[in-house]
Amino acid sequence: MDEKKQLPGWVGGCVGALMALIILGTGLFIILISTNLLPFPEENFKAPRPVITAAGLVFFLAGFLMLMGMIFSTGELRLPVMQWIQFLLVLAVMVAFSGVLLWAGFGPGEHEFQSSVGAGPVSVRGQGNEFVGRLLFGGFGLLSGLGTAWYAYTQTNGLIHGRFKSIFERRPGGQD
């Protein structure tokens, strides 16, 4: 009576595909708004449009990469052309993400930061300190940029010498 039934494998694939499409669609929506293909009041923008486009690109490409992992087989994802496509898409996500953080940390003009602290059901929100916000975002932006440069170097080297590590490959021992 206490037997647990396993769901068929296609259910997980459908849920994953739905999540990928939601993330991709969110990114596309942000890109369409930031490029003014969907009209949106200018006063609602708190950052330059290219920065907002970069943020949308992060979501759009992440959703696209998720779909790639579901659509193509492991063998297809190991083809050299697919490895280069994966590399370039991941690099684009990393560059766009770093760019958003770097703008928040070092971009011109005043920036507004919010802070919140929570413990259980109680949370307190308030206006954040601009210096601390810029320091945190700028610091993480620099680290992210360095990580992006390292990824570009090591993975380009790996692609050239046949040692590319795909984001879709499982590690030995069943660890993801």
Oligomeric state of the chains present here: single chain
The ordered string of helix (H) and strand (E) elements is HHHHEEH
Question: Count of DSSP E strands?
Answer: 2
pLDDT averaged residue by residue: 87
User: Proportion of β residues?
Assistant: 5-15%
**How many distinct helices?**
5
Question: What percent of the residues sit in helical stretches (DSSP H or I)?
Answer: 55-70%
* Main sheet strand line-up: 1-2
Q: What do you see in this structure?
A:
This protein is mainly alpha-helical. The chain has one domain (18-108, 127-168). Helices cover 63% and strands 7% of the residues. A two-stranded antiparallel ribbon has the order 1-2. The longest helix is centred in the last third of the chain and has 31 residues, at 130-160. The protein is globular and about 50 Å long. The two termini are 33 Å apart.
Write the topology of this structure.
Blueprint: H1 9-34, H2 49-71, H3 74-77, H4 80-106, E1 114-119, E2 122-127, H5 130-160
What are the main properties of this structure?
5 helices, two-stranded antiparallel ribbon, 7% strand, globular, mainly alpha, 2 strands, 176 residues
